[in-house]
Amino acid sequence: MIVAAVLGVSNPARKHPTAVSASGPASRAASAPGAAITPSPASGTGTGSGSGSGNASSSPGSTADCVAATVAGMSLSEQVGQVLMIGTAVDAPSGLGDTVTRYHLGGVFLQGRSTRAAAELRADIAGLQRHAGVPLLVALDQEGGTVQTLKGPDFPLIPSALSLGARPATEINQTIGDSAHRLAGVGVTLDLAPVADTVPEDVGKSNPPIGALNRQYGSDPAQVSTAVQTVVAASQAAGVLTVLKHFPGLGRVRANTDTSTKAVDTTADVNDPYLRPFAGGIRAGSAGVMVSSATYPRLDAQNIAAFSQPIITGLLRGRLGFRGMIMSDDLGAGVAVGAVPVGDRAVRFVAAGGDLVLTIRPSDAEPMAGALLTRAQQDSAFAGRVTDAATHVVQAKKRAGLLRCDS
Predict the structure, then answer these.
(1) Sorting pLDDT into bands at 50, 70 and 90, what band is 4?
(2) Predicted TM-score of the model (pTM)
(3) What does the domain layout of the chain look like in residue ranges?
(4) Hey, which end of the chain has fewer CB within 10 Å, N or C?
(5) How far is CA 263 from the centre of its chain?
(6) E strands, 99-150, where?
(7) Which residues pair with 140 in a beta bridge?
(8) CA distances in angstroms from 14 to 5, 11, 386, listed in the order given
(9) How far apart are CA 132 and CA 26, in angstroms?
(10) Strand order across the 288-291 sheet
(11) Is the peptide bond before 194 cis (omega within 30 degrees of 0)?
(12) Is the CB of residue 310 less than 8 Å from the CB of residue 299?
């Protein structure tokens, strides 16, 4: 198709700074747990104090320059590709290689469950990276409990968040640190965790996406915030960036956005105490935040969170001061977005202020990339938004040690 042909062409005159293999360290979170909802405006940037860059000798200025130079060296189609994370089977990631190359993908999501040996996974991920112009963010769901992509002898079982959250911080730190170290060893750079949702005690198992699976760290937002901060610090110190989810919270809903359009939280507002775990994770330096596909009428009566400028740009960027990478929940197979054309889903998320579009369906790469590129070619303001989104993605790559700029 014409779109595929256009997206597959890079500008040979443009040069990227040196890219390195997916093995560098993520940042070490430096800030201590606290109680305030609003974090420092610099939180999560990867360029401010205490945010690290995967290169101990780099300064905040040099990190920003490296990121800016990388993005400036991209064509518009390459920038579009950077804002896409496409799913692929964890046991057969090489099948996505041609898609990575054609659409200049920014990331891949390893979906499913695997008990394969670490050496085999490492070889597969390295092979996939060879298809990328700028190294990929490689993500999975390694929360623990029932949500753990990698298992087997090389990847011990992690307790559920509900179980782990009741344990001492030292045990949480050791458990998550060990898990992240193993993930980093095979080339995983991004864990779509921790879950920062708080599930009220009187809701519990009646909350299908979180409570029914014990994915929450507790029912008290202060306790959840403390656990989330510990997880962020432990994971990123061990070399795997974190993504807080599912902003602004799925703990009160009575339906799952994967299977329903009826996930609604009628309580959440800008002063919601259940925002505290997200604020705590941001303050701890989390590289990313994932936005849910539920509806929050008191925050935005017109749009689901993933398509909401008041929630993404107003609340997350503005009120909470997050400067890192904002990614969507699955905009591919999720029933909550099923009524929206596939390409428009990506456009709406980026227009609302999002940076990295996640879809678990490989077939979505073409329509999403095509829609983003077409809109950017027609609308200079949207093209600027694409550049900004790509910059946030590349900042995360710099933090993960995937990018190096020659002096």
Answers:
(1) very low
(2) 0.88
(3) 44-399
(4) C
(5) 21
(6) 107-111, 137-140, 142-144, 147-148
(7) 191
(8) 18, 6, 18
(9) 20
(10) 325-328, 288-291, 241-247, 190-191, 137-140, 107-111, 84-89, 357-359
(11) yes
(12) yes
Q: What are phi and psi of 262, to 5 degrees?
A: -105, 20
User: Do 45 and 395 contact (CB within 8 A), yes or no?
Assistant: yes
Please say if the pLDDT value at position 8 is more than 60. no
- Candidates 69, 56, 188; CA nearest to 128 is 188
DSSP-based three-state secondary structure for 138: strand
Q: Which two tokens stand for residue 252?
A: 């009160």
Estimate to the nearest angstrom the gap between the alpha carbon of 211 and the chain centroid: 21
- Token representation of residue 276: 């505290």
Contacts of 193 (CB under 8 A, 6+ apart): 141, 142, 143, 144, 231, 235, 242, 243, 245
Cβ distance 81 to 104 under 8 Å?
yes
Task: Identify the residue whose tokens are 């507790």.
Answer: 218
Q: What is the pLDDT of residues 59-106, one digit of tens each?
A: 556 778 999 999 999 999 999 999 999 999 999 998 999 999 999 999
Nearest to 191 by CA among 319, 327, 305, 295: 327
Under the phi-then-psi rule, with left for phi > 0, alpha for psi from -120 to 50, and beta for the rest, what region is 207? beta
What string of DSSP letters covers 307-363?
G-HIIIIIIIIIIS---SEEEES-SSS-GGGTTS-HHHHHHHHHHTT--BEEES-GG
CA distance 327 to 325: 6
Topology of domain 44-399, CATH: TIM Barrel (3.20.20)
